[in-house]
Amino acid sequence: MRYKALFYLTKYKSVNDAVQFYLQIISEALTGRSNFKVSENLKEAKTADIIVTYFVKDYFFARILHPRSTIINWFQGILPEESYLWQKNKLRYYMYSFMEWFCLSTSDYNFFVSKAMLGHYQRKYNYKGNKYFIMPCFNAHLKDNFGMKVDRPSFVYIGSLSKWQCLDKTLELFKEINKHIPTATLEILTNKQKEARQLLKKYEIVNASVNYVPLKELSEYLVKFKYGFLIREDININNVATPNKLCTYMASGVIPVYSDVIESFKTHLEGVKHKIALANQFELEEANHQIIEFEKSKIIDYSELHSDYAKPFNIFYNKDRYVNNIRLALKELGKKGKV
């Protein structure tokens, strides 16, 4: 069954390429098309079978103005906790918590990015709903082969300069690595290029550069790198997340160097051999030791690495699987008279 879906996103211009990829999967499952119609107002809501929201604030107003409409919300992160981390504003925290609770209590269907996120809502709000679908954030397909890769100590970081992305710790770590492996290089891929260069200057890192690459070109560009950084602090915001950059790295044969604080990765990367999982509590010396030992001890067979990474891509990062399963889930919802 195909539905007429309205994507009500008041801040759509601010969403990144990865968010669009996630919304495209939802759109394909609902409408049969990956291209989706975005609206910053609710004038067309009455003619839509389903309204899809991404921000709990958008959901709140959509539900108030259209109480009988079928509305689905995607929870990418735990907004109250994220907002408090950035702004330390308790009023905003409680306001967003109320909106989050309201959304969980009244939405017709929810998308969560991990089982850990579901568990967070069950503990915080005593959420007992069963109308939800769990799909991680991802934005890439596994390349057909890694035969074009070269085995050299090249590192890459993709992302913003937000404090929770831990770029400062990443640079401190790379600086230590560079002392033991002088040929190691680092490239930072970000749209905040000026600020990133200032950070390289602050940490006196020489073997590094800054660039920005659009998502559509990223897969080919990443092929030249061996390792990709994904360092996070052990806090609930990160515990429930599924950063799409892990998928982005692995899709191009880039070995992830990541903090083992993301609950979903502990499960779905359990059998993957080509990875460097750092301790929950980041220790510079220990992390440096792990990376240097991995680099010294392993000669990478990229055919073997491709087979290794095919496992999570067959299940955890399988777009077609999610499209089909979402359709089945919403078909069952429709039988209950909700769609």
UniProtKB/TrEMBL annotation:
<protein>
    <recommendedName>
        <fullName>Glycosyltransferase</fullName>
    </recommendedName>
</protein>
